[in-house]
């Protein structure tokens, strides 16, 4: 009797044994969902307010709609445009086209990290040694992932509803809630895809590869569906097409939620069932029984840093290159729309991109390239903190590897990745811009790519300083500086914030290349500040104890 009561009792602080996995997963998923919900909200707000400030007259908006709405190549890349002569329509078109892909990637990586990744790390062994079965644990983990998706939707909805109250935007609360749901829909589906891939694959990397292949196929089908009017029926053959069919704000279609919900439910049921058919650490699909040892990057701290950073950096560089191709491809059409609008030219000049031609549009959009490159830096700071918090760093530092050597190697590899990311952006933008005869030379775009490295190094230095002084706040501080800098520079430049506020953004210190020539002196100062703060953080790191979560 007493033993049964103890079995049914909560483990601690009211936590029941049957909900431990759900609580742990929800805490991690909610933190990630909150971060990306904030990013989604910023993107929606910047799209709406930027459009309202740039295209003030109806004639300018009609010309923009005629320029972009009739371009099949842009439709294929971003999705078909509906009522983009309105603030709400343009915001929905631009946000849904970009954030549905970003949300799918986040959902896929979060799903594989919090299921297969936790299993690979050995954390599920202790949990499954108790009262929880494999299927119950998988179900709880899925509940935790749902909490992350709900957090992303909530923050996106709050920001969208707040921006929608502006007389310049005019999106009512109901439309804002449905808009946020549409933005989060791809995240929900690919969280489930990641969970299923975690059952099929034997490692987190393999699970991410399976999910990435599924995402690539879905995007390819959506690309074909949007490329020609006769292929529109293909949108119903891909989850990303279902998201497009929701058409939030302009002409909502809630019925498109049915296949989204049906697919998600089917993946959840299949995930839970498969979890009970395999042993812990095993996979449904057969693995290679033997693999050759790969030790060629394990000869020292630099090689180890390259090996650890390689998968993440490769993904970010690929995303940066893809974005460079997109902005280069539409640069000429966008520059025509800007040239025909005095208010658009004025708005571009307030963002530092003065002049005419494709380089004006590229000068503004390279701000987003700078954000993506800086995300490489923040990701490596968070990865370094994760290695310390999980105890993996302890196993390395008990050997002959000094702390300063490990941290310096991580920083050197990260800075090299930032330079590569900037150069890739410049080359890809030039390739696609040249295909449209935009007239922007290669060396100009290479300079613009190098120009984005300075703010990223500065962010890296601030993150390293926080890692050394207050390690538990490293993730929040680094992403906070990044989000603040992007928001202040993008929105503050349009609405005319005080220069003291604008100067607090590391991106505001960056010249809007290639619209104007890079200010290499300022870039050098940003790099120097980043290296100096990283050095101080490194000294603090070598003199403190390692800290877990």
Question: Can you walk through the features of this model?
Answer:
The chain is mainly alpha-helical. It is 74% helix and 0% strand. It is built from 21 helices and no strands. It has helices at residues 2-8, 20-54, 58-69, 72-78, 87-120, 123-128, 134-164, 173-200, 204-227, 239-245, 257-275, 301-339, 342-350, 358-389, 392-397, 403-435, 442-451, 453-469, 474-495, 499-502, 520-542. The protein starts with a helix and ends in a 7-residue tail after the last helix. The model is unreliable at 1-14 (pLDDT under 50).
Total strand count, please? 0
> Poorly predicted ranges (pLDDT <50, ≥5 residues)?
1-14
Mean pLDDT: 84
**From the alpha-carbon coordinates, what is the Rg to the nearest angstrom?**
24 Å
Q: Percentage of helical residues?
A: over 70%
Can you count the helices?
21
Described by strand count, sense and barrel closure, the largest sheet is:
none
Secondary structural class:
mainly alpha
| Residue share in β-strands | under 5%
